[in-house]
Design brief:
This protein has 132 residues and is an alpha+beta fold. The protein has one domain. It has three helices and seven strands. The strands form two sheets. A four-stranded antiparallel beta sheet has the order 1-2-3-4, covered by helices on one side. Strand 2 and strand 3 form a beta hairpin.
């Protein structure tokens, strides 16, 4: 089965310039997505997949990804901004590791595309996504 520690999803960033792996796991009783980029390991709440898919369906059109590090402000109206907004279903960050909670708009969209939940653009920059 794909998406396990033994058989992770092998993905590329939306522009196609970076490679990384993701798999589902459980930590502290919560289902998480483990994202490994080089030696950096990020954790995201696994709820983000269903929640982001629902937001995209309600939006009904393309949404800019707007990826940014945790320390940088996310551009309003982007997937990144939604992934850290007090108005999303978890009331804040889907990223779970303090200091590494950003980049939601970089790493989650390709997984959603892999799972058949979304369509993602693959331009050099300013990529967007929409629900499938």
């Amino acid at each position: 089965m794909k998406g396990t520690k033994e058989n992770p999803w092998k993905l590329k960033t939306p522009p196609g310039t970076g490679e990384y792996e993701m798999y589902k796991d459980v930590k502290d009783g919560r289902e998480i997505i483990v994202c490994t980029v080089g030696k950096t390991v990020l954790h995201y709440d696994a709820r983000c997949l269903a929640d982001l898919h629902e937001m995209l369906k309600q939006h009904g059109d393309w949404v800019e990804l707007g990826s940014a590090d945790e320390q940088k402000e996310a551009k309003a109206g982007t997937v990144e901004a939604w992934g850290r907004s007090a108005d999303n279903p978890v009331g804040g960050w889907y990223g779970l590791k303090k200091g590494l909670r950003g980049r939601f708009g970089m790493y989650i969209p390709p997984l959603m595309e892999e799972l058949g939940l979304a369509e993602v653009e693959h331009n050099a920059r300013n990529n967007r996504m929409r629900a499938k």
